[in-house]
Amino acid sequence: MADETIRILLIEDNLDYAQLIKRILTKKSPDAMDVEHHDTFAGGFGRAQKGEIDLILLDLDLPDSGNIDTLQAIKETTEVPIIVLTGTDDENLALRAVQMGAQDYLMKGQVDARLLVRSIRYAIERKKADDALKNTEERFKLMIENVLDLITILDVDGSMKYVSPSHRRILGYEDEELLGRRVFDFVHPEDFPRVFDIFTEGLQNTDRLYSAEFRVRHKDGYWLTIESIGKLCPPELGGLGVVVNSRDVTERKKMEERLRSLSITDDLTGLYNRRGFLTFADHHIKAAERRKEQSLLILIDLDGLKQINDAFGHNIGDQALIDTATVIKQTFRNSDVTARVSGDEFVALTSDADGKGAESIKKRLYENVDAHNAKGMRPYKLSMSLGIANHNPGTSGSIDRLLLKADELMYAEKNKKYQKTPKGNVIDMSKYS
Fold first, then answer.
1. N or C: which end of the chain has fewer CB within 10 A?
2. In CATH, what number is assigned to the domain containing residue 422?
């Protein structure tokens, strides 16, 4: 408190000793000190309640209050630093006084000017430091309690030592349902090995941040996607363990999946578009090669789409495309890659374990087309032309080359149909007009 007067409240029943203290502090101290004296607990207590003091020098042996109760009562009415004065050389009493919040404990017979002034100065500075730390802690606590992220401190075995209040809001759990539990108990089983490896690696290095994205179980049983960043605790936070900051990214992941789906999916039919097909086709072929299986690429063309559009309108034409996609879905497995790659062209990629799949696929596709047409639900009949190209394990060849080969075969089949049709049309539209 440089350049300011230090206001001291002295509560001491020995008037001679009180005068000595006042002389020491007002004449021999390099600091400006103003000492106000009261010789009873009641008087000192009442003055302390009024405030505007910087420090209390407190005698524990007063006529109307004795020993540690005096300190307790004063502590309840003020937060200023307190230095205890006593004529009793009692280490246990001194320890209790400090534990209860006294800044220092001085024996009256051993106090000189230098010791007293230093004790007062240190007590005030310690109080300032304590207040600053308390303010920092309060701000930190307020921030943690209101932060949207999940703040977790984990022990070296992954058990939770601290969880921020946001855990209840985001995950639905009360503190007692989490504290002491291993965080891995709440991680999705498919994500556990990866998360455990990252956590174990994080325990080996205090300087690195480790991040992970994984699913955790909400109290209500469903799964949320969490993005976490963790770091080994510094020594000042209690030694080994990991501080983890996490946020709920479930909605973001859903949006990413929706955007991804939109970018690779044909809006009309629900099949992959050309981009989606090319994205997954290469992976499918490589997986078949590892199994030493042949792959078949089937290019399918919806015959007569222009005639359907001209005769019935584009809405009915769109319905023909949707019906074609439905037949394709019925013909191929969920593990196959199926797509609409242009206006009336579709493609499917499937594995052929025994090398005899091409004829089986043709038969199954045409049977499904006939079954669809037999229902008589549309003012048109579906007709499809297809070309099948094969890829053998260990041979070179890109997806584009397979598509080109299948396209040639498909048009060869389509030309045969045109040659057999008197009007040159695959579909005789006169019977629908």
1. C
2. 3.30.70.270
Q: What is the residue range of 303's domain?
A: 265-432
pTM of the model: 0.47
Coil, strand or helix: which one is 230? strand
> Do 382 and 370 belong to one domain?
yes
Domain assignment present for residue 1? The answer is: no
264 phi, psi to nearest 5 deg: -120, 5
**Residue range 95-107: average pLDDT?**
82
Tokens of residue 111, six digits:
């106090």
Q: What is the mean pLDDT of the chain?
A: 85
> 154 and 99 in one domain?
no
Structural domain contains residue 115: yes
pLDDT at residue 178, as a whole number: 95
Q: Round to whole Å and give the CA distance between 109 and 227.
A: 64
Domain end point (choices 253, 274, 301)? 253
Q: Is there a contact between 180 and 156 (Cβ–Cβ < 8 Å)?
A: no
With respect to residue 259, please indicate whether it lies within any of the assigned structural domains.
Answer: no
Note whether 55 and 117 are within 8 A (CB). no
In this structure, what CATH number is given to the domain that contains residue 127? 3.40.50.2300
The domain that contains 201 carries what CATH number?
3.30.450.20
Distance CA 211, CA 227 (A): 7
DSSP state of 378: S
419 burial (CB, 10 Å; 0-12 / 13-18 / 19+) is exposed
Token pair for 431: 């019977």
Give the CA distances from residue 5 to residues 26, 33, 117, 146, 182, in Å, rounded to whole numbers and listed in that order. Answer: 11, 5, 14, 40, 55
Determine the length of the chain. 433
Range in 221-230, 269-278, 349-358 the model is least confident about: 349-358
Please tell me the predicted confidence (pLDDT) of residue 204: 80
Q: How is residue 343 written in tokens?
A: 């206006």
Whole-number pLDDT of residue 426? 41
CB 225 within 8 A of CB 250: yes
